[in-house]
Amino acid sequence: MRAWNFTAGPCTLPLEVMEKAQKEFLDYAGMGAGVIEISHRSPQFDAIAKGSEKLLRQLMSIPDNYKVIFLQSGGRGEFAAVPLNLMPEGGVADYFVTGHWSRCAYKECDERFGRAVLHECAVKDENGIVHIDYSRMQVSEGASYAYICFNETVNGIEFDRIPDTGRVPLVADMSSDILTRPVDVSKFGAIIFGVQKNVAPAGMVVAIVREDLIGHARKYCPSILDWKVMSEHDSLYNTPCVFSWYMANLVFEWIKNLGGVEELERRNIEKSQLLYKYIDSSTMYRNTIAPDSRSRVNVVFNLRDEALNKEFLDGAAKHNMLGLKGHKVLGGMRASLYNAMTLDGVKALVAYMDEFAKAHA
Ligand SMILES: *Cc1c(COP(=O)(O)O)cnc(C)c1O
Fold first, then answer.
1. What is each CA distance from 112 to 81, 93, 107, 198, in whole angstroms?
2. Residue 184 pLDDT more than 90?
3. pTM for this structure?
4. Average pLDDT for residues 55-69, to the nearest whole number?
5. Under 8 Å between Cβ of 67 and 203
6. pLDDT digits 0-9 by tens, 95-127
7. Over 90: is that where the pLDDT of 330 sits?
8. Selected catalytic residue, list 67, 197, 228, 325
């Protein structure tokens, strides 16, 4: 029996996609071999590579002057690739930090590659409520780019609008909310996302980069992090993570068939509102993020009495629920409601939370 899987990443994938992959696992496209057993230079794999790019372009309405690059560096590898590709030696970039992952990206740049200016943009008010402060997002003189993490997976904080950085290209890490809502790609210089939160099993990261920003990498930038080298080779410079790419293609098809990103946004609003509304109405649970800065995909919450955490998690396991423990840097609880999580799953969670609250009233 499949669990209700609220794990933050790697995480739940659509059942239909898992079943299709299972069916094709031993014999892909009548080849008598699985997709992980064939050459990445075969026409069968080439169809997956080209088809997936085409689908992603459709789903996100990616303008023609943007390259889509499939890489293996992981999210953290791209934290290095961003300055290596966009910032010249001795340059400067602005980091609008709103939580764990934007802070990691800031550190990677600042400690290794150049001057990163830290702007603390998640602000706590006198009642302890956190909100994103867009007025703090000022760019520095001569900045090569400004950097944000669109959805902070650990902290449960998400942008509800795109900050205006004028002529300075905006770079966004969308690892955890890619394809959960429509975004205007043309407002960004680059968008990066690891696939393991909404798209596929771990192993791949995608960079969507405006063409004029490609080709300026530092001399010593490793080839596999150089967006120009990778895009010139159609992301097949080295052996890609074929399974992850194949699964991403299946997920893109799944999204297209269910009505696209607009439909997913509708579902994600419905799912997250159900949970937030319950949390706000209860005396047992608490979320301290302002409504307009709350994540639709990672809902963090604390029990009023933290001594009950273990009992809460043990009870959840008995109710066939996985992955509700918060990230180690934050503690508490976190329910990740990615695209593959159904409304029924969220209803089951709310029912369990209510049962637990009543038992401890
Ligand atoms: C998970 C995550 C990362 C880290 O990705 P890795 O592939 O593990 O390096 C980076 N950014 C965000 C927003 C994430 O959710």
1. 12, 13, 8, 30
2. yes
3. 0.98
4. 98
5. no
6. 999 999 999 999 999 999 999 999 999 999 999
7. no
8. 197
40: closest CA among 247, 241, 227? 241
Nearest atom in ligand 1 to the alpha carbon of residue 154 is 15
The single-letter DSSP state of residue 153 is T
Q: To the nearest 10°, the Cα dihedral for 303, 316, 177, 235? A: 140
**101 catalytically annotated:** yes
The neighbouring-strand residues paired with 252 are: none
Instruction: Give the pLDDT mean for 153-164.
Output: 97
- What is the tens place of the pLDDT at every residue in 294-303? 999 999 999 9
Q: Are 72 and 200 in contact (CB under 8 A)?
A: no
What's the chain's average pLDDT? 97
Residue whose Cα lies nearest atom 10 of ligand 1: it is 75
Secondary structure of 165-222 as H, E, C letters: CCCCCEEEECCCCCCCCCCCHHHCCEEEEEHHHCCCCCCCEEEEEEHHHCCCCCCCCC
List strand residue ranges (DSSP E) for the chain, in order. Answer: 4-5, 66-71, 92-97, 115-120, 122-124, 130-132, 146-149, 151-152, 157-158, 170-173, 190-194, 205-210, 285-286, 298-303, 321-322, 333-336
Q: Say how many Å lie between the CA of residue 198 and the centre of ligand 1.
A: 12
Residue 264, C-beta contacts closer than 8 angstroms, at least 6 positions apart: 179, 180, 181, 255, 258, 339
**Range 180-194 average pLDDT:** 98
The CA angle 81-173-154, to the nearest 5 degrees, is 120
Q: In this predicted structure, what is the pLDDT of residue 329?
A: 85
Q: Which residues pair with 192 in a beta bridge?
A: 173, 207
> Which residue of 11, 71, 72, 101 sits with most ligand 1 atoms within 8 Å of its CB, as the best mutation to test the pocket?
101
